[in-house]
TrEMBL record:
InterPro entries: ACMSD (IPR032465), Amidohydro-rel (IPR006680), Metal_Hydrolase (IPR032466). PANTHER family: 2-AMINO-3-CARBOXYLMUCONATE-6-SEMIALDEHYDE DECARBOXYLASE, ISO-OROTATE DECARBOXYLASE (EUROFUNG). One of its GO terms (cellular component) is cytoplasm. Residues 24-394 form the Amidohydrolase-related domain. The keyword Protein biosynthesis does not apply. Keywords: Lyase, Plasmid. SUPFAM superfamilies: Metallo-dependent hydrolases (SSF51556). This is Amidohydrolase-related domain-containing protein.
Length: 395
């Protein structure tokens, strides 16, 4: 056995000292076990649910005739960075990923008072009906998870955008469940290019080169419903996918995924979405924030110079919409905090990213202390709690 194989991700961790009295974690994750699908899918699909097989030191998810190794980048909490590994068993993951009582214990250890949960979303299937049903199954499972501690855990539902009326219906269902946000892919999904192979990326990224765009009037019912229900819309680090299984390309991919989120906003912004729906709130989750002031300054200048011939008749400079309609979360971003008073960077939120490989757990308050050196307490408290409460409506 190697040293890595002996690591216990669920080993006891002593509670860390706090540096702030109240923290709202704007982005954490769940890692639901495959066994949950059999319970939460609609009855006609339950016999198609994934199962798990173990071969040696690796668990495999068996689904629709394929066997896939369990990859652990989604759950490295409880390990030192020198102990990270990519493939293993569900027993290599920290239990707080799918056991709510263990999640609360870890939040207490790490000094987190509230947290907004995002998950893995739907099944990778070429069956469109099963694909849609798995969104609903996942969302209900995650809402039930949050119901264990409804004053501390809050769910962000994952929704498809293949069909706008379906999206709108699911937004209403999310609101009834008590979910505080709905997450949609960075670009609209496309039936034309829908396959089993592409389905999981369609769920996160959508169809990047597709004909549909969120500036189109087709999607206005989604934005209108978000305003009507006072429901936040999120995009979760999906404009560019990191090749998390590829040790050669993973590191170059990671920073590109952050700034790529600008394209999502730009399409909506220049397309007049925020003029048509001024109360709409969108969140760029896990995007980082240090790049936003530069982007706003550049966008303001180029819009002033190019708006006439492009016939871009939005009512305000781009930075206005960032401060009015756009929120963004980061994990550790000292530069973004230093630029917090620049146009476009006022609505920023801190997160721990538990239990993913970028997580600050179990040292979140130490990271907060380092990131907020010499920052006035009022500014710090806005970024580590107040902004997320406003965006997600937790107040």
């Amino acid at each position: 056995m190697t040293v890595l194989e002996k690591v216990d991700a669920n080993r006891a961790i002593e509670a860390a000292p706090r540096v702030a009295d109240y923290v709202v974690d704007a982005d954490v994750h769940v890692t639901p076990p495959p066994q949950m699908w059999k319970e939460y899918l609609s009855p006609q699909f339950r016999d198609q649910a994934p199962t798990v097989e173990t071969v040696g030191d690796v668990d495999y998810i068996v689904f629709e005739g394929q066997r896939k190794q369990v990859h652990l980048m989604q759950s490295q909490a409880g390990r030192k960075t020198s102990e990270y590994k990519n493939v293993g068993k569900f027993s290599d993951m920290r239990l707080g990923g799918w056991q709510a009582e263990k999640r609360i214990e870890d939040m207490d250890r790490d000094g987190m008072d509230k947290a907004v949960l995002f998950g893995g979303g739907p099944l990778q299937t070429g069956n469109l009906d099963l694909f849609f049903d798995s969104f609903d199954a996942f969302n209900r499972w995650q809402s039930d998870f949050c119901a264990h501690a409804p004053k501390r855990l809050f769910s962000a539902a994952f929704l498809p955008t293949v069909d706008v009326p379906t999206t709108v219906r699911m937004m209403h269902e999310a609101k009834v469940r008590g979910d505080v946000a709905v997450n949609i892919p960075a670009f609209p999904q496309s039936i034309k290019n829908f396959t089993k192979m592409s389905s999981i990326w369609q769920a996160m990224t959508g169809d990047v080169g597709g004909e549909r765009q969120y500036r189109d009037a087709e999607f206005d019912p989604i934005w209108a419903t978000a305003q009507e229900l006072d429901l936040a819309i999120t995009f979760h680090l999906g404009a560019r996918i990191s090749r998390y299984k590829d040790k050669t390309n993973f590191l170059p991919d990671v920073p590109m995924g952050k700034t790529a989120m600008l394209e999502v906003v730009s399409i909506m912004l220049y397309g007049g979405v925020f003029d048509r729906f001024p109360q709409l709130r969108i969140g760029l989750i896990e995007s980082g924030v240090g790049w936003i002031p530069w982007a706003c300054e550049y966008m303001d200048r180029t819009w002033e110079m190019q708006r006439h011939w492009t016939e871009c008749d939005i009512k305000h400079p781009p930075s206005h919409y960032f401060d009015q309609n756009v929120y963004a979360s980061f994990i550790s971003d000292r530069i973004g905090i230093e630029l917090r008073n620049r146009p476009g960077c006022r609505n920023i939120m801190w997160s721990s990213d538990y239990p993913h490989s970028e997580t600050t757990f179990p040292h979140s308050h130490a990271v907060i202390a380092d990131n907020f050196r010499d920052v006035p307490q009022a500014d710090r408290d806005w970024i580590i709690a107040g902004c997320a409460e406003k965006f997600f409506g937790l107040g």
